[in-house]
Amino acid sequence: MTQEQENLSAFVDGEYQGDDSALVSALKQDTELQDKWRRYHTIRDGLRGELPADSSIDIANSIAAAIADEPAIVAPKRRLRDLPVVGSVIPLVKQSGQFLVAASVAAVAILGVQNYNTTPEIDEPLMTAPPIAGRPQGGLAPVSLEQTRPVERTDMATLLEQRRQINALIADHERQLQLKQAQMQDSTAQEQAAEQDQQPE
Amino acid sequence: MLNLSLRFKAAATLMLAAVLFSPLCVAQEPEGDVDSPEAAVEKLSGAQWLLKMSQAVSQTNYQMSLVEQRPGSDTVPYLWRHGVFENGITMEQLSMLNGPGKEFIRVNRQVSVFEPNVAPFSLSGRIIDGPFPSDLLLNPLDLQSAYTFIAIGRGRVSGRAAQQIRIVSRDNSRYAYQLWVDEETGMPLKMNMLDQSGQLIKQIQVTQFTTSAEPHEFFSRINHEALPTITAVPLSYHQHNWQIAYMPIGMTEVKRNTHRLSVTDQVVEYAMLSDGMVEVSVYVMPISASGPQNNVYRHESKTLLNRTEGGMQISVIGEIPPQTANKIATSLVARVE
């Protein structure tokens, strides 16, 4: 048992030298070991300051429950292992949390085509990621219905006017950033010049 | 592709190889002595790694290709070169490689900007404001009033042995960063910006880099006479009758003025807050009939929050979480004389 714990600890740290698959299958059998696995990860994340602000500890179980509850008429029931990668499941849950947080601040709309719901693949190394056929790249991503849901479809002109003002603000923010760079560095340069002047005396 | 041979002693190469290809040489390594390759690497704190990075960025000759990626938008590739000459002159070039392009060339403290449809101009600056926050590259230790640096350990990035440093705001009111620094040279290799649930919102990844003894020959082709002269940017300051009561720890007001928005021509009262890693713009203007109501928007990695109060509209924009933007917007109070 202690050997198992040691192996598990090494595995969590990515330093396990033995047979990964044997350990993983042991892990699948043993719920006690699974709990340990989760705790080790939580501890490690805590030490690194990586714990999310809303640390709802047991994400995996809530996903499993949510999937089991999914009505079969809307979509066929999918078991966890049918999903392509577990890694792509977790962000979905986190994102819905994100929406709730934002919604509690004010009514939310997401601007333009920047879609935060379709990009769980971003963790992949960029230099090796080939363009995937059939998936729109970059700025060509279509606006999905989901994004526009929070905006009431009342007055199109109002909506456009709002968007115009938002764009104006964003453009101005960018411009101020560029100007700030020059101004701030100017003033630090002056300060440093002043310091150097004083030093010889 | 990578210039590994430079300034690399044979022993160091062996050590690096042992780390990178550990499965191949497990047999040669004595059992229970797994820590020995680690011990050979300097054990530095997060702040020390950042200091090493800032020295490397300003004191060595290098050329790197890097990409900046935000979820849902196109990847932006850059070429970044830096050269140090015998007479103490430093030159830097940053070039956007996609689309019509935009190019920055810095000679000492003069940064010239070349972009299509705009006459070239120069600004004064100690570094080109590229994908990495310039204060992080110039004065990382100054950021410690707002952020803590945690050394996480080593990893492998862009084919190199790297050290990961986590940059977390002291009051957890801003996005967190993961930064990977090349173990040998100290150069930055990768940076992630993460929101509060650990979701990636911006990533900078170096895809290739070379250091060299001599500056790149590109710099010898720069015609110094042809660079535009520095445009004076007036430091205007206007006092407004409002002030910001809440600012995240380490954030200060760096600018305040009144100007027109270039798109709508609307006059706005403006203040900028900065903590060195991110800048936040605060706008106050009269409410318009069809203007934005109380909404939070997200544009790329930026949050835009609109709030109306007493006939005025307050807008907060920046790479900060919506909660923090809301705290700033609701903290605006009338200025006490």
From TrEMBL, chain A:
Bilayer disposition of the protein: Single-pass membrane protein
Keywords: Cell inner membrane, Cell membrane, Membrane, Transmembrane, Transmembrane helix
Taxonomy, superkingdom: Bacteria
Family: Belongs to the RseA family.
Binding partners and assembly: Interacts 1:1 with ECF RNA polymerase sigma-E (RpoE); this inhibits the interaction of sigma-E with the RNA polymerase catalytic core and leads to a decreased expression of sigma-E-regulated genes. Interacts with RseB.
Domain Anti sigma-E protein RseA C-terminal: 137-178
InterPro entries xref list: Anti-sigma-E_RseA-like, Anti-sigma_E_RseA_C, Anti-sigma_E_RseA_N, Anti-sigma_E_RseA_N_sf, RseA
Biased composition (Low complexity): 189-201
Species whose genome carries this gene: Alteromonas arenosi
Entry protein name: Anti-sigma-E factor RseA
Cellular localisation: Cell inner membrane; Cell membrane
Organism phylogeny: Bacteria, Pseudomonadati, Pseudomonadota, Gammaproteobacteria, Alteromonadales
Pfam families: RseA_C, RseA_N
TrEMBL record, chain B:
UniProt signal peptide: 1-27
UniProt keyword list: Periplasm, Signal
Record domain MucB/RseB C-terminal: where: 238-332
The organism's place on the tree of life at top rank: Bacteria
TM spans (from-to): none
Compartmental location: Periplasm
Keyword Ribosomal protein (UniProt): no
The MucB/RseB N-terminal domain, residue ranges: 46-217
Primary location class: periplasm
Presence of the UniProt keyword Metal-binding in the record: no
Annotated Pfam families: MucB_RseB, MucB_RseB_C
InterPro entries per UniProt: MucB/RseB_C, MucB/RseB_C_sf, MucB/RseB_N, MucB_RseB
Family label: Belongs to the RseB family.
Designated name of the protein: MucB/RseB C-terminal domain-containing protein
Annotated organism of origin: Alteromonas arenosi
